[in-house]
Description:
- The complex is a heterodimer.
- By secondary structure, chain A is mainly beta.
- Helix content of chain A is 7%, strand content 46%.
- Chain A contains 9 helices and 50 strands.
- In chain A, the strands form 10 sheets. Chain A has a 22-stranded antiparallel β-barrel. Chain A has a 5-stranded mixed beta sheet with strand order 10-15-16-13-14.
- Chain B has a domain at 39-266 and 383-484: Serine Threonine Protein Phosphatase 5, Tetratricopeptide repeat, CATH 1.25.40.
- Chain B is built from 19 helices and 10 strands.
- Chain B has a two-stranded antiparallel sheet. Chain B has a two-stranded antiparallel ribbon with strand order 2-3.
- Classes of the chains: A mainly beta, B mainly alpha.
- The interface between A and B is large, with 72 and 78 residues.
- Chain A: It comes from Psychroflexus aurantiacus.
Amino acid sequence: MVKNFLIATLCLLSTWTYSQEINIEGSVSDIDSGMPLLGVNVIIEGTTKGTTTNFDGEFILRSVPTDATLVFSYLGYETKKVNVAETTDFTIQLQSDTQALDDVVVIGYGASSRRKLTGSVSTVDAESIQDLEPLNAANALQGTTAGVSVTPQSGSPGAESNIRIRGISTNGDSSPLIILDGFQYDGGLNSINPQDIESITVLKDAQAAIYGSVGANGVVLIETKTGKRNQAAEVTYNTYFGLQQTTRELPLLNNLEYALLTNEKYANAGQNLPFPDVSQLRTNTDWQDEVFDTAAIVSNNVSVRGGSENTDYSFSASHLDQKGIVAPEKSNFKRTTAKLSINTDVRDFLNLSANVIYTNNRSQGINSFGLGSVLFNAINIAPTIRPDRFNLDGTIDLGNEVANPLAQIANTFNDFESNRLSGSFQAELEYIKDFKLTARYGFNSSNLNNREFFPEFDFGTSKVFNRPFNQVNQNQQEFYDYTFDLFNTIEKSFFDKELDVTFTLGMTAFRTHGEGLFGARTGVPRNSYEFADIGTATGVGDNQTNGSFVSEFRRLSYFSRVQFSFKDRYLLTGILRRDTSSNFGPNNSTAWFPSVTGGWIITEEDFIGTNDVLNFAKLRASYGELGNDRIPNFLFLSVLSGEATYVLGDEQNLTNGQALGPVANPNVKWETAKKLDIGLDLKLFDNSLDVTLDYYDNTREDLLIPFIPTSGIFGTAAPGSSAPTRNAGTVKNYGFEAAIGYSKEVSDNFSFNINYNVSTINNEVTKINGAPFLEGGQFSVGQLPPARMEVGQPIGYFYGLKTDGIFQNQTEVEAHPSQRELAGVDASPGDIRFVDVNGDGIVNQDDRTNIGDPIPDVTMGLNLSFTYKNFEFSAYSFANLGSDIVRNFERDQPNVNMLSRRLDRWTGPGTSTIEPRVTTAATANKLFSDYFVEDGSFLRIQTISLGYFVPEKALQSVGISSLKLYAKVDNAFTFTEYSGYDPTASTGAPIGGGIDLGFYPLPRTFSLGLNVKL
Amino acid sequence: MSTLYRNLFMACVAFSLLSCADDFVEEKPPYQLTSDTFFETAEDFEAALIGAYDPLQATYVNVILGEIASDNTHAGGESATDVVGWQQVDKMEHTPVNDNIDDVWDFNFAGVYRASYIIENKDKIDFEGKSQIIAEARFLRAYFNFELVKWFGAIPIKPEGRFELGEETSIPRSSVEDVYTYIENDLNLAIADMSLESPQVGRASKASAQALLGKVHLYQDEFILAAPVLNAVINSGQFRLYGTQGDEEFLNLFEYNAENSAESVFEVQYTGAEGAGFGCLQCSEGNVMVGFSGVRGYSGPVYESGFGFNLPTQETFDAFEANDLRRELSILDIEAWADETGASYTIGNQDPRTGHTGYYNKKYLPRKNDNLGDANLTQPNNYRAIRYADVLLMAAEALNRGNIDDALALDYVNQVRVRAGLSEIDVSGSQLTEEIFEQRRLELVGEGHRFFDLVRTGRAAEAIQGFTAPKNNVFPIPIEEIQFSQGNWSQNTGY
């Protein structure tokens, strides 16, 4: 049949050769600017015959049949058809298609026009990325895509970001699958130069089912920039220089306030005053000023892109050097990247492409998150201590966990380096017309090299930071993975092109392998980083340790997708994927993931049609099942990793044997996501207003719950054993998303566009088998876990005591249920009054309840840009509403410094209903309660940028085709009620996230930049 | 033409590559021993046996909580709510919600699980010395199961091997009778194969298994069966009462230099050579009970400080005759000691029912040593699980209560009395029974046996304040386990 089709096609072609032919010369330009367009495809309709325009936008096409129709197509422009018989003037003007309905959107193992997309898909284009110029490409998704939330893990240089698509669906790994140019990319997005990225596409619903057991968290498809055919080499050079500073310093007490309030603490407990004479205070150290610094950032980026008739190429290189706003010399990040891609048509039926990215990251870091971090120490250390008191002996006792942050910085030495090579090689073979076979081999190879040195140092008696001897730690890790894809794509039209069918059938094999070696040694000569190497160090004895790991994971997938488009308006796609993986147990070895998506382009119907108001309308719906296989390896296998140590023999020696490790679960399987999406895409008012609406409902079943409480008869309590990981929970997320874009060319000199998106998230745990709840997170020291996952509640909600003001007098204390059980003492006036939630007449830990959750109810982004003459302005902002955050950077210790809010403490009846009294005596005030939970809502102006294009006339003489100068502010303002450094502070943990342990704030950066094109 | 061939070729290539077999994903964890390839060498069996001995160290919970449950001691601790599960047991107010009783369940079942792992693989290969290893595994399984049946009564059992996930909802709690039959069977098989001499210091010998079997029979009032195996231990000539020969000093019985002595029939081994933390008490290579029993805030000679739990009562102290050496051996009178040596200490829990008594469990107090941190958790004192004195008294009890041979029974009792500095006595019948019971208390105080002796002889309700029979004859099945079993296991009567 195929052969017949070919013969028929050949016959058809041969008939044309007998009709009349002419040669056509012409040119193509932009209708608005009049600029010639180069590389425009000019094709004789119904044939493969054609050409492309040259640098002056001109083309010559020989032997064109007189009855032919020429098709002019160009990326980003509306396609134009010209009937040869009807004109002799081939000066063609193309209208730029800002609405880009016919833009091609990658959807995994293929692409679709935006018009015909049937899933919920958001994209960020190169222009937005260029505007934002984020340090980490992930941050380009923040505020620009509905339903996608990006939170940096820290503001320290080189920190990664957590990406969450449509909420948190699992207690495990919620991060989406990242596909870079077609292959699975597991490195952090930090390793990719954002300026190499052409587009980022996010598949949010069942559209991602083609990725089966890796698609449940959503899929982020990154396409890198390639060259353009028939284009002379275009050289770009982009650079900027910036200065970074902290966005805020916390209001803390000065020396006098501190001494007086600390005295009051002791007095209230009937103890001797630590500062009997406050007039003697001399030192007043602002520790935040001491640790924060202004730090530089420099970026350089060069690229060369172009192409001939059959080949295009792209080469780019970049270097980024970012210093930290805390301890710039000890906390910094350097990224060097190089990328080469080449794409060539070897024959008209065979295309080969290769794409290689090299990244070198080097960083140094300080302790930047949690108890013991530099900022935690800066907040808690007393202002009465001189900055040069590196050993705190003889100063006021601050407990074991608070040390001089400057001493801590001075004693921090480390270097982290990673070298990474990623790339893909691809062949596309059109072995029969419309039958295409694609083979692709993608790989990531990375080498990580860490060295840490802990000098011998005494921070003061019994400080946890003390090092009685020095130590060097070194580790080297290697990871290697490949993705091998092989798939057939068949595109056919039937019934006079009424029905278009695209069928894809293929397989993917994925393998990842990692190895690491670790070692530590004491006895580094001269206690100096200069000689910190395991080989040079001379230590012997117990503290010389070594270790290793090897990991291995494989996945094999088959997939098929069929896309129907009938009369250009009825769209239907079915996807089926089958996965097997080395992580799945023998009882659940094979997973099937089906999905179906459909669309109806209403405006193609005659009874609606298009008009000035409604230009385009499409109704979409999708439903499908996807999986999450990000589970620890080999959970179904019993490994002899338990501890088997006993004392045997005359000498009473420790003797090691073998014992089983964590209990295996042969039934372990992937998590299953059931995703429903109903959407509407509209274009209104002459395509100027673009509206996308979605309702989504995602249910994640079979959540893998690690260490789920399990009967002791399985030996779970044995040393080195643990309870198994079981599929035992369900979480539901649902909500609405809307994205509205408006763009307008007011005049030749002025155009603008505004994009707004908003999404709501409702999160609820609906099932946990075998356990009433799961706990996590940490609050203060030695307190009960503050976060829970529990049926009927949002995942990771905060579980603590509910407050009801402050006891104003003894009568109020006595009228209230006893709080004695909480802290072993009765409450006093000035203490927090807790609510007896269960009404049993006493207040104890059983009265803990839901006191907030870190999941925002609403997230939104507002981005606007306009150009006026040669000026270009853009501003990007985003907001989270309804999220809660836990303030947890105050050490619970009598002599530490305090936030200024404590000045408003209760000192007698009627003085405060919020801030409890200060005292060193035992109270329940420090227990986790809503006193520590704050509204984490915020609005952040992420980027403001003003650019100026130097007039071309001024540039022509020096051979520059375009020059843009700009000034930019990143992280410009954050409007929030939150009292900590940054309302986005979170570990990102599903249970225990949203707890601020002294987050390293994101810097505010002022930068000046230059973009040059040759 | 070429098109056709190309098509065929491509179709073949595409098909063959697409058919990449599922065995691509059949991976093993690299460089790791997994259970499906284990027990393939003799070395594997020996290694697994060490793994089965390891949980013995966690049985410190049985000892300290057994003492606290009895009339011997108060719970003690920092306050009346310190380790609340122990405090509740001390007052006989415990319920199924009790983490510490749950520890007893979990730690001992962990031992059963590890021993069962060896037994279920016993036929995988043959090698010289295998029967000894399997026999020791059976001894260990019996040891842990005996503890479980003492504490909880009916328990789930699976003689052929390990429990598998899901069986908590299908395997019932076997009757106490069936559990004992199962334990006896393991011990009889162990005795048949075990060598007379323990293969290594710290491992069980034939006599260990015989003594345990005798004890198991005694707990069922099977005196006729108990007497011969206990006599076999005594007649083996392998053991003697410590302090009766050479330069042995009786009062050193619980010092380091008397560990694995001639009195030791079976002894749980501990060391301070490895650190430990509160995150995994059962992982400690030290005797956690010892640090918990130490004097709070102690500073002075001989001893190290501890957490002040498990405090002998005045009544216990007074139970000794003044000339009984065992009072000196078993109980530290802290006031007298402080007066004598100038040692200082602090007092924690002062609750009259569970708090400070002025006495400490001297047999298992931390002695000064260089154990690694957390020093409270890594005290190296071995636990004398089965002492020859215990065997003598058990044999005497079997002979007397079984009406087998009162004369021999009296001889055994007198051996124990004389060693303690007491005179010989001459009684028989029920008077001898009473004497045996009394000697068991005095001889074994502080070693975790008292509560179970009282229960099995029906004397617990009169001796222990708050004890209700039959409810308190066993402890409640932990609430967690009741929930895991989803209705398969019912709660013990009264809880």
